[in-house]
């Protein structure tokens, strides 16, 4: 990826003397951003532009070229890419549109350029993007003209949509936040977010990484990279609905993803998720501040109303509003005019009109060991105190750096005054206490997070060749069809997952013998894979207490559903839960946990994580649900064996990672022992082929 950002010579393919030619804007941007390297415009008609000769082909260029930027009709790209290969150009940015985002039949064109790129060892960004910018060296190649007004900063912006990417650049510039690198990824046919994230996580010029995505190239790889990245990774993922998918596919060749699964995956990988452009900007603003190492917060406000709002926000996010010391309270009381406001946290300074003291109070507060961060709120109408207020804004950044603690600054004034403050203030300015407090919450969670490194290509320590041998006789299974019941239970046993004692048979004597071995009461079910919800269809008989009842149940089931039946020991005690897994196109096997029986569908209270998981993640999944409250001992009930439950979840995550031919697993219900009893036992199991 380094070659895309550190090129010293650039060929711009698709330039002409026509005033409507978009390729000219690329040459203009390179000049506007003061690119110090050599620029080679290329166009079939030749000529000149901005003092540069326009070469008719890439092969006419006499010198070595590091990077080619191409903006020509889609059908011309294969020949141009071949010329790049023959010229020895290894990095190309394709800004042309008209590929699979335009029509499915254009996929052959994409396959052709991929083959050419592979043949010549070329990496390319795009197609269907607006290019990239490295603000450090002026390498700016978008086909839309930009003004060189962006401050250099430490934020990298990756966007699948060029429009969203440009919007983010402008939004950050409005907040006086600079960026280091920008890439419009387009269709991500060759270079994708994972390639760029892998580069940026070690890029010295980048501290924070923002990514806008409509589709995921490889969700598991993204999780692996993000979970190992020490820098904040903020992602705004869109395109979840049918309405958005049609638009997204028409301009970036993206497919929809299940939002609940994406949310779970991002949380697991430590990715900070934004839900809007505005929130994306606010999250980036948060990481312009110093780290928040604890949850002890001080709120200082000139407005009582804003102080109340900030207090609500602080409570909602779980911050501890620590008491101010007597020394500071005495200082406030001595300088208050009417003495009608009681000093506390939040500290209302509405009765204090000496703005020089505001800085002293903020300094004293940040100096305290029992304060981890400050929300500082100032307001005035822009007529009186304008100069003093701007001086106060200018001092907040230095105080934050002095104490190495975050200060979220909320300012309420006129638009005219706000513009003046943004020029002198060295910290981002917020206009809502809730957004400011949320910024501290994001900082606190990031700097205290404990993310387990995710492994994309995982083979569990429990796998043995014997497990594959167990499956060989049944492969290939029909997609979506259930695995034979006995095979499902044997697979569970191979991974050490405890099940109720069981036997699958159509022989009456074997069924009767199994009942004697297990001990009554027993349960009898049809073993037919055509029946999904056995209870709904009367394919389960519970609480069979003796031989006579068993024979009667066996006769009835075999008449209705076929001869093969499943007999199990009835597990009487325990809390019923559901543990399962399904395959996601982006993330592979997804673990599911919730209440057992019919309640999993009734309440839809299910937690998710991407397999594999560890015991800690399993416990997090448990505690996110209502089932977790039951297992923890709701209303003085005995606590269940959560350790055994988590162990089963981990083992199942290993199973579904190893056995990709299995699409879905439902263990429902699982009975989790309570009190002094131990264990978690699968009572019913269903698996389907991928």
In short:
By secondary structure, this protein is of the alpha/beta class. The chain starts with a helix and ends with a strand.
List keywords for this structure.
690 residues; alpha/beta; Rossmann fold; 5 domains; 7-stranded mixed β-sheet; 24 helices; 38% helix; flat
Percent of residues in beta strands: 15-25%
* Fraction of residues in H or I helices: 25-40%
CATH homologous superfamily placement of the largest domain: Succinyl-CoA synthetase domains
Q: What's the total count of β strands?
A: 30
The structural domain count equals 5
CATH class of the largest domain: Alpha Beta
- Named CATH topology of the largest domain: Rossmann fold
Mean pLDDT: 92
State the separation between the terminal residues, measured CA to CA.
Answer: 36 Å
What is the makeup of the main sheet? 7 strands, mixed
Shape-level CATH architecture of the largest domain: 3-Layer(aba) Sandwich
Q: Which residues form runs of ≥5 with pLDDT under 50?
A: 249-256
Number of helices in the DSSP assignment: 24
Classification by helices and strands: alpha/beta
Broad shape: flat
**Side-by-side strand order of the widest sheet:** 9-8-11-10-12-13-14
Radius of gyration (Å)? 32 Å
